[in-house]
Amino acid sequence: MCTNIQSNPLRLIPGEAHSSRVSVTAFGESAPSAPGLHDTLRSGEGPLSVSSKINNRHPLESRVQNWDTTQREHQLEAYRRIFGAADPIKREMELKLVQDTDFRPAVLGGSSNLHRDILLNKETSIDWEDIYSGKFAQTTCTNTAAASDRPPMDFHTEMEKRFGI
Question: Any idea which UniProt keywords this protein has (predicted)?
Answer without folding.
Answer: Chaperone
